[in-house]
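Late entry, written up from scratch paper. The run itself happened at the end of the previous shift, but nothing got recorded in the book at the time, so transcribing now.
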Amino acid sequence: MSDNPLKPLRLGTRRSRLAMAQSGQVAEAVRRVTGRPVELVEITTYGDTSREHLAQIGGTGVFVTALRDALLRGEVDFAVHSLKDLPTTQPADLVLAAVPVREDPRDVIVARDALKFTDLPRGARIGTGSPRRAAQLNAYARSHGLDMETVPIRGNVDTRIGYIHDGELDAVVLAAAGLSRIGRIDEVTDFLSVDTVLPAPGQGALAIECAADNAELIVALGELDDPFTRAAVTAERSLLAALEAGCSAPVGALADLLADGQIVKEMRLRAVVGTTDGTRTVQMSTTGPVPETYDQATALGRELATEMLAQGAAGLMGERAQ
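Output as recorded:
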């Protein structure tokens, strides 16, 4: 970094509107902490060009691979990912230099006629590309006697919301954080409580990644790291890894902080695994001291995963990730 203090730092990003928006926000923060200009380098990934369902082409990890390849080739200095897309094994030659403060991790509904989730009509068709969301929505519908159908969809936010406007679907499920980052949170008709649908591990958080041998850049990017967010997402992703599940598996997890007044006392980790049709689920939680190290955070996730596996979680996930 010190070779030329004014040479722009190159930030690798996917070309989607959401990726460009969140990369732009990170670029501005990096400019502030480093005093260096930052230029966005757009990288096309197979996941952006393929029309196949994500689960068939390897899950959201396909979005990450091209960015990591560009990092390893030295074409970019750092990259920004949606943390929920990252595979749980970290390459030895790359490092997560920062996990900034997390946005709202919840899922949301965008429905016709500004309907709330519980006001959707009988037989409502709800679009989602996520087995995790389908599993939990179907389980909720079963337990509450609701008549609804989840419909698999792909595409960007415009495409997905378009299904409502043209009458194909009654509602779609999206991540609050994504809509917030592209300035479209006002289109949300209902926020789904995490008691109804647990988010994907890492949802709402970003990961800023760079080469492991770029010590100066690691220190600079570290200014953007939020220790509480990092501890929470580390616990969530540790659970996912211990379940041997990929990022497209029907696993929901959320670690949050339990406070007594102004004092943060504990971290609670909740998780769910279910069959996509919602007929069988394993849902559990654990609470412990707020992790102060990476090992403590991973232990929290691993312990809960072990309990879930003992309750039969493995049989609900279909193909285990290799």
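The two ends are 37 Å apart (CA to CA).
(Scratch paper discarded after transcription.)
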